[in-house]
Design a protein that fits this description.
With about 350 residues, this protein is mainly α. The chain has 19 helices and no strands. Helix 8 runs parallel beside helix 10 and helix 16 runs antiparallel to helix 17.
Length: about 350
């Protein structure tokens, strides 16, 4: 009897390779690759993936990792090709749909990102990547409370996902809840110190809490790590310039606001802030040029309303001695009604 059992065990062991999956033995290494990608360590993930590709060439998980690597490098088409292959092979894995959806979101193809995020959550309502993506999209669609619930769940399932922490912080920022926003932006920056967006938002939310030295450190860190790619923030100079102006560091503020007008020339707010700064620095002609540029630009979100610009132009023209224009903008300031509450939603 014992001999028969041993024969069966030996036969099963000999046949095991035929039953083992194509990724068998590489699971731990692939998990480490995934963690590195989640934390933004693309080069480390790529280095670690190499031996797995050599030892397990048929493993579908490799396609998922390769897609994430190419997406992080900004190679959208290459990433899409890997994601298509992976989702064709692993039709029930929510991660493939979630990462594919994030790729479309980064490309501003919102309908595809929306559809893939829905599919990802349907396949696995506990997948943190799917939850984070769907939560972000719901917030973008004007459903912040629904988005918040999903992002909170994503952070609970995987507290080491900096993107989920960052997106949840953004919702609290939009609610003007700086205490909660700081909590999540601190976590995001601790997990991924190369995320300029999170550092910038951290600075913005430390300001109203009166933590000005910490806010300045956050802005400086945002600048030091700000590189084109997924974590790039085009408004760091604008926010830091405004901050320095409030601290009366006017020449330094001007350097950053000069840079902001180069980076975001179609944004009314950057010209408005530089116009205000130039007025304070008695650069009246430059202030006039900046304010007139700001008036010429649309601002659908009403970050800077027309009433603010008319008031500023009244001050500028008065300083320039152009009394007629000063009176014109004084009249506009009196006669222009403020926007209706909720109009800028």
């Amino acid at each position: 009897m014992r001999a028969a059992v041993l024969c069966i065990l030996f036969a099963f062991a000999a046949a095991w390779p035929a039953f083992a999956g194509p990724c068998s033995g590489a699971e731990e290494q692939l998990a480490k690759v995934s963690t590195k990608l989640t934390l933004g360590d693309v080069s480390g993930a790529e280095t670690m993936l190499g031996p797995v590709v050599a030892s397990h060439p048929e493993c579908p998980e490799i396609l998922l990792a390769q897609g994430r690597i190419e997406a992080a490098k900004g190679n959208a088409q290459a990433a899409a090709n890997f994601y298509v292959q992976y989702t064709d092979l692993e039709t029930q894995d929510s991660r493939g749909f979630a990462y594919f959806g994030r790729l479309f979101l980064d490309q501003r193809d919102y309908p595809k990102a929306d559809a893939l995020s829905t599919a990802a959550v349907d396949k696995n309502p506990d997948d943190p990547a799917a939850l984070a993506l769907r939560g972000q999209i719901l917030a973008m669609k004007g459903q912040p409370q629904e988005g918040k619930k999903l992002l909170e769940k994503a952070c609970q399932v995987d507290p080491n996902d900096p993107e989920a922490q960052y997106q949840l912080g953004k919702i609290y920022d939009s609610e003007k809840n700086s205490v909660a926003a700081v909590k999540y932006f601190r976590k995001a920056t601790a997990l991924n110190s190369g995320d300029a967006r999170a550092w910038d938002y951290l600075g913005l939310n430390l300001e109203p809490l009166g933590e000005l030295d910490s806010a300045e450190q956050a802005y400086r860190k945002a600048q030091s790590v700000n590189q084109h790619g997924r974590f790039y923030d085009g408004f760091v100079d604008y926010n830091y310039g405004r901050f320095l102006a409030k601290r009366n560091q006017l020449p330094a503020a001007k350097q950053h606001l000069d840079r902001a007008t180069e980076l975001a020339p179609q944004v009314r707010a950057v010209w408005y802030e530089r116009a205000k700064l130039n007025l304070r620095m008695k650069n009246y002609q430059q202030s006039r040029t900046d304010a007139e540029k700001a008036v010429s630009l649309e601002d659908p979100a009403h970050v800077i309303i027309d009433l603010q610009l008319y008031s500023l132009l009244e001050q500028i023209y008065a300083r320039l001695g152009e009394a007629e224009l000063a009176r014109k903008y004084a009249a506009l300031t009196r006669d222009t009604p403020p926007p209706v509450r909720g109009e800028n939603r």
